[in-house]
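Hey,
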Amino acid sequence: MGVVGVSLIVGADALQGLGQQVLAQLAVLSGAVMYAGAAIFGKRFTHLTPLMTATCTMIWASVFLVPLSLVIDEPWTLAPSTLSMTAAVTLALLGTGVALLIYFRLLRTLGSLGTTSQSYLRAGVGVALGVIVLGEHITPVIGAGIATALIGVIAINSPKRA
């Protein structure tokens, strides 16, 4: 139901460019596969605190990504503004650090299926932000998609009855 709901929200127009930007499309698909794999693999660390797991995740990400960024971006040639640096630090602390703490806490309490089921809600949240921030409107099809995705997430996370 989650996939159907997201498909209704996104619409068939999203498939028009299928096959034109193959590398970008493969990157998106591989990101989804890695996200699912991380949730399944992350269950192995539920005996550790979420703070420990999130901290170690960020350390290992830095070990691999910082040297790569030095080669690719040549940051010594950049002159970012104070506002840009503040935005980057805020995203690092809140958008990544706090998000990882919440993620590993949910992984510990809900398990991998319950934790990853929230991804079906992202499209609906994006639509809600579009309505609130940009004044966009929800069509009946998009509304049905949001409701369908929400029902799917509720069904996944409902306690099992015998």
